[in-house]
Amino acid sequence: MKWREILIFSLCLICCSEQRSSPGSDSYVAAVLEYQFTRNTTQNLQNYIQYIQEAAEQDTDILVFPEMTLTRGEKINVPIHGLLKMFPVPALHPDLFDTILVELSGAARHNNIYVVVNLQEVMDCSKATEEYCPENKTYIFNTNVVFDRTGAIIDRYRKINLFGEYTRNAALKPELGLFETDFGVTFGHFICFDLMFQVPATQVIQKHNLTDIIFSTMWFSEMPFLTAIQIQEAYAYAMNVNFLAAGADNVNVTSKSPGPIYDDPEASKLHLNKDLRLPSEISRLLTPGHQEFVLIDRDVSCHFRVKINQLSPENNDTAPRFFAFVKDGSNTYVQRQIGVALCAVVACRNDSVASCPYRFAKNEMFTEFEELEIKMTTYPSQYNSSLSCDNTVYYPNSMRYNKFPLRSNDFIYEKSQNGRLASRGNKQDGANTKSKPREQILYKLMTPTKELISFGIWGRLYLRDIYAHKEITEEDLKNYVEIENVIYSNADLYKID
Ligand SMILES: *[C@@H]1O[C@H](CO)[C@@H](O)[C@H](O)[C@H]1NC(C)=O
Ligand SMILES: *[C@@H]1O[C@H](CO)[C@@H](O)[C@H](O)[C@H]1NC(C)=O
Ligand SMILES: *[C@@H]1O[C@H](CO)[C@@H](O)[C@H](O)[C@H]1NC(C)=O
Ligand SMILES: *[C@@H]1O[C@H](CO)[C@@H](O)[C@H](O)[C@H]1NC(C)=O
Ligand SMILES: *[C@@H]1O[C@H](CO)[C@@H](O)[C@H](O)[C@H]1NC(C)=O
Ligand SMILES: *[C@@H]1O[C@H](CO)[C@@H](O)[C@H](O)[C@H]1NC(C)=O
Ligand SMILES: *[C@@H]1O[C@H](CO)[C@@H](O)[C@H](O)[C@H]1NC(C)=O
């Protein structure tokens, strides 16, 4: 597997390399933008173009914009199998394409830079003869569009897994987003909720042996396992890829960007949803001192070895507590039932499991984990030959009080192979793993810490996924439009400097 070092920088920093990266380079320069959108598309477009120019001035090879921060009501035609085949550079044929594509194409071309944007796409099947159209009607998609350095549109990816979004259609076919660059890297890309699913999140990497992924998002964070930075870092680690995530910035919808640079670790305004099913899972309260025990749910067993030091006995009564959890089951998000297996330790408000999870503040760090080790015995990964990827993926999943995950040198994460433990990265042969009924995973803290909100092995069992495909009711639609109104209601308050 080829590894490249990427330099990611925020747009306010000055960087200093001197030329574009090439296939011979051992690094490339990427920028991801954490963007506070306005409701005015013309204004967003102007801002985007300014950011493209600023990124190019810092020798960026590729700039990634977040999800749904460009267009609001506007819908854009992206005829990648039609007009764009003959005229791939909208800037050179402004009369043939939507102004937004023309302007972005011009900015990419003028600044000699790759640009990935997300927008609302429209496809009118009564006109789009070259497109796949199951019905003669107008479809609306949540779409990534990729421009190369000449301003040509080289890829169009339609979101496969909508998060509600009842005003839009899911991709009509599960087509992956994939494009090559002139600096020798092939990128896979997908959008937000897609991260949770076998197609595309696991398939795009494993089917095409990718090392670099682009992710545009407006993530709705949920404690204790699915806050934005936490799950995105867990994915990058488990999949062994460079991960370029661009997040929309809106504290009111818990979608604060994953941006590793711009994010304010102390931000307390940020509202985080909670997994309300957690208290009903099988659990056990941890006590001060050393303890070792096993929790079992159906076919998943978790062996915990923990040593806790109570740092401030005088705050004994009010100090956050910790519970260990096991789960072998499913969770449901916006009508999608997904298979989940986990072993984890989670912070709680008090010694009632109903108070889990709890994000404690810096001045409540009264508990130190001197030792924390979880051994999970679970379903083995199993290669899916028709999709060319695994049916099961496990993630080392952690979150600290500042909502960042543990640094990778603060833990070890190992999976069993033929009875012994082997580090991640060793490619497993499908045939070998298939014959083994059980897999063992070790997740162990290497540095004592008092910052943990959650620490666990969080697994996705894709074969258990159920998509009910219910009819969308008027009420679903109304509720969704209301959510969008909340998301965008304060957007006009934002001003760009
Ligand atoms: C949208 O932004 C553009 C560019 O700043 C401005 O000219 C226009 O008046 C704005 N439109 C509205 C409705 O505010
Ligand atoms: C699709 O519908 C339009 C009217 O909306 C009609 O003009 C056209 O002939 C239809 N196309 C097909 C292939 O049925
Ligand atoms: C990915 O790598 C595997 C093993 O190294 C190889 O067999 C396969 O052909 C590669 N696939 C692609 C699409 O490059
Ligand atoms: C409270 O503090 C005392 C003294 O350090 C300790 O023995 C006891 O286990 C603590 N209780 C809890 C629930 O932390
Ligand atoms: C535990 O904390 C919750 C709030 O998260 C509170 O509602 C509950 O009353 C507390 N229980 C105890 C036993 O203190
Ligand atoms: C591959 O995955 C699909 C979708 O999850 C599933 O329907 C199919 O049974 C799987 N095939 C194998 C061989 O695991
Ligand atoms: C969040 O919502 C509150 C209440 O509606 C509003 O006052 C505040 O400006 C919003 N903040 C942002 C960043 O949109």
Describe, in short, the structure shown.
With 497 residues, the protein is an alpha+beta fold.
Radius of gyration in whole Å, from Cα?
A: 23 Å
Beta-strand fraction estimate: 35-45%
Helix tally?
7
- CATH class of the largest domain reads Alpha Beta
User: In angstroms, what separates the terminal alpha carbons?
Assistant: 42 Å
- Helix content range: 10-25%
> Which ligands appear in the coordinates?
2-acetamido-2-deoxy-beta-D-glucopyranose
Provide the domain count: 2
The 3D shape can be described as globular
Low-confidence stretches: 1-17, 254-266, 420-435, 492-497
CATH superfamily placement of the largest domain: Carbon-nitrogen hydrolase
Helix and strand composition category: alpha+beta
Q: Which architecture of the largest domain would the CATH scheme give at its second level? A: 4-Layer Sandwich
* Major beta-sheet overview: 6 strands, mixed
The neighbouring-strand order within the major sheet is 1-2-3-4-5-6
Write the layout of secondary structure elements.
Blueprint (H helix, E strand, L loop, with lengths): L4 E4 L18 E6 L8 H17 L4 E3 L18 H4 L12 H13 L2 E11 L13 E10 L5 E6 L18 E4 L5 E6 L6 H11 L3 E6 L4 E2 L4 H12 L2 E6 L25 E2 L7 E4 L3 E9 L2 E11 L10 E13 L2 E13 L18 E12 L4 E2 L4 E2 L1 E9 L10 E7 L2 E4 L6 H6 L3 E7 L6 E16 L6 H16 L8
Parallel strand pairs: 1-2, 2-3, 3-4, 8-9, 9-11, 10-12
Antiparallel strand pairs: 4-5, 5-6, 7-8, 13-16, 14-15, 15-18, 16-17, 17-25, 18-24, 19-20, 21-25, 22-23, 22-24
Helix pairs in contact: 1-3
Bound molecules: 2-acetamido-2-deoxy-beta-D-glucopyranose (NAG) (7 copies).
